[in-house]
Specification:
The structure is a single chain. By secondary structure, this protein is α/β, with parallel strands linked by helices. The chain contains 13 helices and 14 strands. The protein starts with a strand and ends with a helix.
């Protein structure tokens, strides 16, 4: 793995590059451009950047208006405020109208760290995937973030892209074959499948290597697109390995774990375990220490796999 990069940083770099050729791309922010990394786009293309201040609902409403006028809009703020404070506007003004708005929300999950419980969101994937027609994406590293963002921007319709604050290992490179709506098989295995999303993909690979030393052959899938969900790869994994563990930096209620369980219970019931936030708020602390305390590490994935035997 290469040096660590935050997916929010990759997002900022993507916007500047995309803005060179995509003249219809407009970027909005809510007084957080330094943190969301939209500031680079603002500097490069000041006539296509709008800062709405601490007024997330207004920003999402304006995003819908710009999109319905023919623009491609990336609207950014922290995930807590995008998915929570502005949910009704996203639902009615963006989702209901099918507006071409990409809600690119940063600082998601426990790795917001020192910002504490008020800023750590474990509900955003669950909320966004309930909106009809909403594409929901959770990249695992900087390279996959750029590759998926390009596809999201090129598609028509609303999307939610989840991005993180903390730097994470670069798992992919820019030649990776990553397709929106299709899970990536990263490691074959016959005994158990770990389906991971976001920053826990690299942890899943680490856990698979450790379990291999115990004679457990682990299949690893990167489920970067939560909606539309790749049901085919899930059903195949369930039928061939008979056990599934999901891993996410999100509540196990309604996120990746819930989405996979919906498919498995309907199509191919197997034993399952879920690694993620277990119905609790977080607290202020260092990201790695918080991941350990709240059970979102490679060691927790290992223990979840063992628990299925």
């Amino acid at each position: 793995m290469a040096d660590k990069v935050a997916t929010r940083a990759a997002y900022g770099e993507f916007l500047v590059e995309e803005g060179k050729t995509n003249k219809d791309l407009v970027v909005l922010d809510a007084d957080l451009s330094g943190s969301t990394k939209t500031s680079g786009f603002a500097k490069a293309y000041p006539d296509r950047f709008f800062d709405f201040g601490i007024a997330e609902q207004n920003m999402m409403g304006a995003a819908a208006g710009l999109a319905l006028s023919g623009k491609t809009v990336c609207a950014s703020t922290f995930a807590m405020f995008a998915s929570g404070r502005a949910f009704e506007i996203i639902r009615n003004s963006i989702g209901y109208t099918g507006a071409n708005v990409k809600v690119c929300a940063t600082h998601a999950g426990i790795t917001v760290g020192e910002d504490g419980a008020s800023h750590q969101t474990f509900e955003d994937l669950a909320l966004m995937r309930t909106i009809p027609g909403m594409t929901v994406v959770n990249p695992s590293d900087g390279s996959s973030a750029k590759l998926l963002l390009k596809q999201v921007v090129d598609m028509q319709g609303p999307a939610y892209v989840r991005l993180g604050r903390a730097a994470v290992p670069q798992f992919y490179d820019m030649t990776a074959d990553i397709k929106l709506g299709k899970g990536n098989l990263l490691r074959p295995g016959k005994d158990v499948t770990v389906i991971a999303t976001g920053i826990l993909v690299s942890s899943a690979m680490e856990a698979a290597s450790e379990l291999a030393e115990e004679g457990i052959d682990v299949r690893v899938i990167d489920m970067h697109t939560i909606k539309p969900l790749d049901e085919e790869i899930i059903i195949k994994a369930a039928s061939e390995t008979g056990k599934i563990v999901t891993a996410e930096e999100h509540s196990i209620i309604g996120g990746l774990g819930g989405a996979v369980a919906e498919v498995v219970t309907r199509e191919c019931p197997v034993k399952m375990a879920m690694v993620g936030q277990h119905d609790t708020f977080g607290e202020s602390g260092k990201p790695d220490e918080l991941r350990e305390k709240y059970g979102m590490t490679a060691a927790d994935i290992v223990n979840a796999v063992r628990g299925l035997y």
